[in-house]
Amino acid sequence: MNLPFLRALVHDRFLQLLLLIGFSLCFFTPFAPAKWPAAIDWHTIITLSGLMLLTKGVELSGYFEVIGRRMVRRFHTERRLAMFMVLASALLSTFLTNDVALFITVPLTITLKKLCEIPVNRLIIFEALAVNAGSLLTPIGNPQNILLWGRSGLSFPEFIGQMAPLALVMMLTLWGLCWFCFPAKTLTYHGGMKTTAWQPRLVWCSLAFYLIFITSLELKQELWGLVLVAAGFLLLARQVIARVDWSLLLVFMAMFIDVHLLIQLPALHNLLNSASELSPSGLWFTAIGLSQFISNVPATILLINYVPPDTLLAWAVNVGGFGLLPGSLANLIALRMANNRRIWWRFHLYSLPMLLWAALVGYGLLFFR
């Protein structure tokens, strides 16, 4: 019996909320549990499993501490460090996707907290916002863009040109917020910190496993890739498998089932059927609002069957990644990895104003240029 895993489930308030929502929705939709497994995006679950194993492998190797020590020596102030981490998160998300970028930057940020005094929760929140802003630029930055790009018929550069104005404004906004939210005070190092020995073998093996896993994803053999990665860690470092936050997978499964139940509500069906008749401004706010509750990827999948995959839809669902926690799955990944209860409500102090600003800026650029 895995007691740490059971304790995590008992104290996981977000998972309990998702289960309560799913239970409530069962009273308003057809009760068909046999269909629930098919509602889960198993590709996402398998991909997350592999990424969590790989990130935990690098983390337990001690290599993040090696990088962290070099960074705190290079960036002498809290503001410079924060602006670098935000920029790195955004750039990584443009070609590694937003969730993969977070699996690199968030563990590194948590390691930095062990080395110096930084507002780690605030920095992780900004990194979550940064990957949402950076990933909207390219066709491969996030799942909804991959779908929209495939349907739009645009070339890779044309899609980037379509998204560039909104991406530029949001990144400049984040950098401006970083300037005001992180002071230019000198970083204070923790006294008495010992340099822990890191494990080069585990780092290099994790990198080799990463290449194997990415190759398996490209070949559409993600399950075999996960099996190989898990087997590798089982032989090399079993503690990696034991230390992964597996309850995160249950959160995602519950979320997929809740969305499956939600989209069966008659009111939502009526909204989708009338989506093609909405005015451009009506579609703009509908896509953003829908993303807030069912996440922007399911919102894109639903709306793309009723409206064209043009600039308006692409901007709207990406703007919908800001705001409430379910707006983007990347938000959930970042906050779960932070492992701090206070971060859940603090996130919305920054994300909701960003949603309002992004919606207004996007609306202005689309309809008044």
Q: Could you outline the blueprint of secondary structure elements for this entry?
A:
Blueprint: H1 3-10, H2 13-25, H3 36-39, H4 42-61, H5 63-74, H6 78-96, H7 98-115, H8 120-135, H9 143-152, H10 156-181, H11 200-218, H12 222-236, H13 238-243, H14 247-262, H15 266-273, H16 280-294, H17 296-303, H18 311-319, H19 329-338, H20 342-367
Helix pairs in contact: 2-14, 4-7, 4-11, 4-12, 5-7, 6-7, 6-8, 6-10, 7-8, 7-19, 8-10, 8-19, 8-20, 9-17, 10-20, 11-12, 16-17, 16-18, 17-18, 18-20
Summarize the structure.
It is built from 20 helices and no strands. It has 369 residues and is mainly alpha-helical.
Distance between the termini: 61 Å
Number of helices: 20
Unreliable stretches (pLDDT < 50, length at least 5) are: none
Main sheet characteristics: none
Overall mean pLDDT: 84
Radius of gyration: 21 Å
The number of E-state strands comes to 0
What string gives the helices and strands in order?
Answer: HHHHHHHHHHHHHHHHHHHH
Q: Helical amount among residues, as a percent range?
A: over 70%
Secondary-structure-derived class? mainly alpha
Strand percentage: under 5%
Shape type: globular
